[in-house]
């Protein structure tokens, strides 16, 4: 046959079958049947393809179909919840062609729920609070178990449970195949009546030295335990034994029916706030004029300061102080308080002093014990620690005595010092007799120049100052001077000695002469040279060679040397009036002109 003919035959066959009731959709059920005291949903697939649903139930008594269906919800929907077993069918209108479709009927059967029973291990409905009662389920195969307490699931599917709480226990047995559930008759458990002890609350205890007290509880006959409990039956609490802290006290009360003891607890807070006061100096003394403060322990809720019982305005943990007083701080942590007293003393800058140590002359003196104020300091002599000033050991010279006082405050630190001079007993020495030219001057000087000594020169003739160790003398004639040196520290500490100042006539020396034989200025004349019979005269030419030499009586230099006439020019001379005193040598230059 041609291919197109087969296509037409197939098309009409499908069209026929689609309108045939035997090809229509089936009614489906949510389950195998109806469980006791339950319902079953009937429904069809693709309900949106239909409208005008009409459900019918077969009535056995009349052997006819009725639209009065015993179910939940209307009979004009695609779903129907039913509560009775039996035969059911459905009519609907197909939206695609407005044709009426009858769905094949279904038969719904009644299902049997499994047995659910609770059996207690001990035939009782009362237990002690804290104990348990074993509840057992009846044994059924192919089921699930679900235990409930007061309608709340215990999430326990065992056949045996331990019931520890009072209430109504129900066992649900669920058939694994049909899903039918059977709840047991509730098994109610109650607690034996209990005497629940309650300890009365205890307010915060301030101070571990607070007197102890008995705790109060509503039922007697039990025992107390916990920190600070010194009498377990009376519940005597001792803060001193408990010490500061948070303490939990328990009370245990025996029950009837052999039930476990019942307990209650109370929390007792023992506070013992302690406040300390520290100062900016670390002690109780302060320096006048320097910053000073007191610091209390930090972290408290409030602070109250007072000075000599007068409350101050300061409310912080630190207080600035300026004067001697009794200062007190009172602190509080919001419940308990404590206080601390501090006595402050302000002191002035220390002024150390050394008991005077006399300066002396000579070493033969008794050692002096070193003393100073305020006491407690340290002495040093020339940098070395000492307790006495020993003249013989220290020796002649100036010695510095230092006294140092050290304290905990800067104003308690200070030093004092004294210079003590040990003078030697003077013994005057002059190096030599002093010589000078008349009209000049000379410094008088012994071996003593210490300004602490007293100096007296006599006679007070032609002296610049007779009270100094080195006066300038300019006598016009030879003079003997006597020096007396005295220590100002001892009347018998002195010496005196004389020195001669020899005054010589001055030699007048011309610086040019003309040995040309004209009878005028032909020789080098030295006026007053005759006063020095041992005078030594030397004349040198420019090359340092002797041009003239004379010793003893000066005969005069005529410009010749060994009979040879010296050329004109410049020459140098050296004249020593006293060969024993070269320091009086006279030097200069002279010129020869012809």
Automatic annotation (TrEMBL):
Superkingdom of source: Bacteria
Signal peptide: 1-24
Name assigned to this protein: Gliding motility-associated C-terminal domain-containing protein
Organism: Flectobacillus rivi
Pfam families, per database record: CHU_C
Lineage: Bacteria, Pseudomonadati, Bacteroidota, Cytophagia, Cytophagales
Keywords of this entry: Signal
């Amino acid at each position: 046959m041609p291919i197109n003919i087969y296509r037409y035959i197939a098309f009409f066959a499908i069209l026929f079958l689609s309108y045939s009731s035997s090809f229509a959709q089936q009614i489906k059920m949510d389950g195998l049947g109806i469980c006791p005291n339950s319902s079953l949903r009937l429904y069809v697939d693709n309900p949106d393809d239909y409208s005008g649903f009409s459900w019918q139930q077969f009535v056995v008594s009349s052997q006819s179909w009725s639209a009065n269906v015993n179910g939940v919800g209307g009979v004009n929907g695609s779903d129907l919840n039913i509560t009775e077993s039996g035969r059911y069918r459905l009519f609907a209108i197909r939206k695609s062609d407005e044709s009426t479709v009858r769905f094949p009927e279904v038969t719904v059967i009644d299902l049997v729920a499994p047995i659910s029973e609770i059996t207690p291990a001990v035939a009782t409905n009362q237990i002690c609070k804290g104990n348990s009662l074993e509840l057992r389920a009846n044994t059924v195969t192919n089921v699930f178990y679900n235990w409930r307490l007061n309608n709340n699931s215990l999430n326990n599917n065992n056949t045996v449970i331990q019931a520890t709480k009072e209430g109504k226990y129900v066992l649900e047995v669920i058939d694994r195949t049909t899903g039918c559930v059977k709840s047991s008759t509730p098994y109610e458990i109650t607690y034996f009546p209990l005497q629940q002890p309650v300890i009365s609350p205890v307010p915060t205890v301030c101070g571990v030295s607070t007197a102890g007290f008995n705790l109060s509880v509503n039922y007697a006959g039990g025992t107390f335990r916990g920190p600070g409990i010194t009498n377990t039956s009376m519940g005597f609490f001792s803060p001193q034994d408990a010490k500061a802290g948070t303490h939990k006290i328990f009370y245990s009360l025996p029950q009837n029916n052999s039930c476990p003891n019942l307990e209650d607890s109370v929390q007792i807070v023992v506070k013992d706030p302690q406040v300390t006061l520290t100062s900016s100096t670390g002690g109780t003394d302060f320096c006048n004029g320097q910053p000073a403060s007191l610091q209390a322990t930090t972290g408290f809720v409030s602070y109250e300061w007072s000075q000599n019982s007068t409350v101050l305005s300061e409310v912080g943990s630190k207080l600035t102080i300026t004067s001697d007083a009794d200062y007190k701080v009172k602190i509080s942590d919001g419940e308990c308080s404590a206080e601390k007293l501090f006595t402050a003393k302000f002191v002035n800058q220390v002024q150390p002093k050394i008991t005077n140590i006399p300066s002396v002359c000579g070493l033969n003196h008794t050692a002096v014990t070193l003393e100073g104020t305020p006491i407690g300091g340290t002495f040093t002599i020339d940098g070395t620690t000492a307790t006495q000033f020993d003249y013989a050991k220290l020796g002649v010279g100036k010695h510095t005595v230092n006294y140092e006082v050290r304290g905990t405050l800067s104003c308690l630190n200070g030093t004092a010092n004294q210079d003590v001079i040990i003078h030697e007993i003077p013994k005057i020495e002059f190096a030599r007799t002093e010589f000078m030219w008349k009209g000049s001057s000379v410094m008088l000087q012994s071996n003593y120049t210490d300004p602490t000594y007293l100096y007296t020169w006599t006679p007070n003739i032609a002296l610049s100052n007779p009270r100094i160790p080195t006066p300038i003398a300019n006598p016009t004639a030879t003079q003997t001077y006597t020096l007396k040196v005295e220590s100002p520290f001892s009347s018998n500490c002195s010496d005196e000695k004389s020195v001669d100042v020899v005054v010589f006539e001055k030699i007048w020396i011309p610086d040019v002469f003309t040995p040309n034989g004209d009878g005028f200025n032909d020789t080098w004349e030295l006026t007053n040279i005759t006063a020095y019979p041992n005078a030594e005269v030397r004349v040198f030419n420019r090359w340092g060679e002797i041009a003239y030499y004379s010793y003893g009586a000066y005969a005069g230099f005529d410009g010749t040397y060994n009979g040879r006439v010296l050329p004109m020019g410049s020459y140098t001379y050296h004249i020593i009036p006293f060969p024993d005193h070269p320091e009086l040598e006279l030097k200069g230059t002279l010129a020869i002109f012809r």
